[in-house]
Every structure is written in structure tokens, then in C-alpha cells.
User: Fold 2'-5' RNA ligase from Tessaracoccus bendigoensis DSM 12906.
Amino acid sequence: MRIVPNQDRDFTEWHGGCRHALVWALDVDTPAVRERVSEARSLLAPHLLGRYRRQPHITVAFAGLDPLPGATPTGGLYTREDRRGHIEGLTRLRHGPLDVEVGGWATYPMAPYLEVSAPGFEPLRDLLSTRPGLYTPHVTIGLYAVESELGTVADLMADFQAPPIRLRVEAVSLMSYEASDIAGPLTTLGRFSLTEGSWSATA
Assistant:
């Protein structure tokens, strides 16, 4: 496998003027996970897009584009009705908190990531995703900006130490990011408490 660069551009043909894209995710932006992501990014820096600013998170499902009057997207929209339906589904699911373990590194062709073990993840994925099929939960380290051999990347990560980081995640969050920016930060719009079975908006 070779690693390949991401296209760092505004995919206007996809978002068509919709300002935000929405994603359901587990917030794992803790000091321990941030430190591990930072260490991995430092080792991989020659191969990564330098301006990546997404906070550590585990994507559960891409929700869709936030509708905007006058926009002409080709990507799917995520309406208020969709959000309401998912919140109702989460309420019925009565899932409970997740015990998550963040470990070593692995990679996709376009992005390196930290491996994640999350027993009980699949019911949340099945409920919130419109794309059934196999999915590997992970924490993205960054986005590749160059093309290279996988062996070169593996050599850079040879001394990377990754004892398990264990977390209890008590909410699944609806987050947004600027649809025009492949590397911009996330904003949390609301959280569904897996402990209390209730939704609270934060933005």
C-alpha cells in the first residue's frame, strides 16, 4: 500500500454552498489522547497536512450537510427531521456508556489513525449511519499531504509507544465543521447522554 495526498481544496461541487457538514461522534478530546495524537503527528510531520485542526474524536456516522436556502449540494442533507428521528432512536436504544480503549497506530491510504476498541459501538453505528457495512472506529491523527511508500511511514513510527488509554464515554455528540475546509475544527452542537438517555443542545 502507498499513502496518497489529500486534495486540500474547497469541494464546492459536493457542498454546493451549504456551510456546515454534520457528524455523530464520540468526544475523546482528553489530555491523554491529545498527547498521543500530538506525538504521532510530530513523528509523521513530514508527510502530513500541517494545518489539521480537528479535535480527537471517534466518528460514529457522517450525518450529512446542514441545509441552507439557495444551496445546490450533491451530497446528502441532514434535516431537522433527521436529527429528531435519530434522537428518538437513541432514546429507544437505551444504550449505556461505552468503555473505549485507544491504542497504537495504523493507517488508511489517505490518513493515519489511532486504533480504537469500543465494545458496543456497533448498535450506535447501525442506528445513526446511512451507510451499512464494515467500519473501523478510530481517532484520526491527520491527513497525508504527500505520496510515499507505507514502509517509509512505518519507519517514522518505529519508536511510537502506545500503552492503552482507557476512557468511559458517556455521550454521543452531534458535531459540525466548515464544509469548505477538510482540516478545520469541530463544533459540538449537542450531546445525547448515554447515561441519562437525554439530549441537550450546546450550540
About this structure: The domain at 2-201 is CATH 3.90.1140.10 (Cyclic Phosphodiesterase; Chain: A,).
